[in-house]
Amino acid sequence: MNDLVRFESFIRVPEIFYGMIGITRYGEPRNTTKARLKQLFFWSSYANTIFCLIIEHIYFFRAAGNFTNFLELTALAPCIGFTALSIVKIMTIKLNEAKLNGILDRLKELFPVTHLEQTRYRTHQYNLESQMVMKSFSILYMILIWIFNLLPLVSMLVNYLMSGVLVRELPYFMWYWYDWHREGLYEITFFHQNWGAFDSAVFNLCTDLMFCAVILLMCLQFDIIAVRLRAAKDDPQELISCVQLHQTVLELGDQLESIFSPSILVNFLGSSVIICLVGFQATSQISAFDLFKFVLFLISSLVQVFLLCYYGNKLIEASSQIPYAAFQGEWYLADVRYRKSLLFLMARAGKWQKLTAMKFSVVSLASFTGILSTAFSYFTLLKTIYDPSEK
């Protein structure tokens, strides 16, 4: 606890995943040979993920006319949604890379750097929460994607030991114009699907983690403002400094919304359907292998949406404490001019900072319950339409 917390500690985990997919990490030079090679790797990974999405769609539409493939289609649809969402999310980061780096630069300038400041503003607690949430979510996502990727090999081995016949399987339903069962082609196809699935998972993961990290850093700044306001007495300069910091954080919040708002809207629209279809698969008559992976998929989908909504709600709560913190200070000992200035701050702070999905929905825990309610409605409708006993 005596060690200083570095700003980079808050974004270390998403930055690690950025490095895995070829995105230049925060603070790295961008005009070097290494940076150009990383750019080439990113765009090749992105192109492969789009190609996977295309052939998933082709497979889906070719099989859609046959109702006997209904379970197969509802197993493929969440994977299509997951891949499409990952493409939208990572492009959100890529198109707004300079703006996001600008937000991080400003937050780094505001970050408390001395032992006294970090103790006073509970920076260690914020860092502990950041590390715990990000590492746990990352482990969950990596377990999910590698179970999906490698479970076919386990299934092939079990079938071979029981029957003596090797039946090649792929992790995902995709359309290929060649016979992927052939030796050599199978290995290439298996690697291609694993690469695309891993990139999809990392695209989703690093975007969500960076979103949470930035919000956590903004909440830290709101806490700093609240602490300073409670301790302020008749000090006009301290009040002016708090007002300026508050205005800066509000502006950063608006910039953050402009970056992530489109992807959040797509996320919210797609999450209800994905959760519904994954839940439908988990409650259908499927093998134990498939049941395990779809239950894990369902848990991961719920946690992913919950994290976005939880941190959106956390930002609302952090910003809403400002007028109360101002009232809790010793303003009654100050002169009339100081009191009037404090009233202006409280009036502005009464409009809480919040993030929205393109103004359609506020990112909060209430949104999470709405998504679950919609997903359950879709789920019950789907279960009513499809009855395995009548197939």
TrEMBL record:
Transmembrane helix as a keyword of this entry, yes or no, is: yes
Which locations, inside or outside the cell, does it occupy? Cell membrane; Membrane
Q: Which UniProt keywords apply?
A: Membrane, Olfaction, Receptor, Sensory transduction, Transducer, Transmembrane, Transmembrane helix
Kindly give the InterPro entries that the UniProt entry links to this protein: 7tm6_olfct_rcpt
What is the protein's membrane topology class?
Multi-pass membrane protein
Q: What is its main location?
A: membrane
Q: Which GO terms describe its biological process?
A: signal transduction
> Any idea which GO molecular function terms this record carries?
odorant binding; olfactory receptor activity
Q: Name one GO cellular component term.
A: plasma membrane
Pfam families xrefs = 7tm_6
Keyword DNA-binding on entry: no
* Transmembrane domains' residue ranges: 40-61, 73-91, 139-162, 201-220, 264-282, 294-312, 360-381
**PANTHER family documented for this protein:** ODORANT RECEPTOR, ODORANT RECEPTOR 13A-RELATED
Family indicated by similarity: Belongs to the insect chemoreceptor superfamily. Heteromeric odorant receptor channel (TC 1.A.69) family.
Protein name per Swiss-Prot or TrEMBL: Odorant receptor
Organism name: Culex quinquefasciatus (Southern house mosquito)
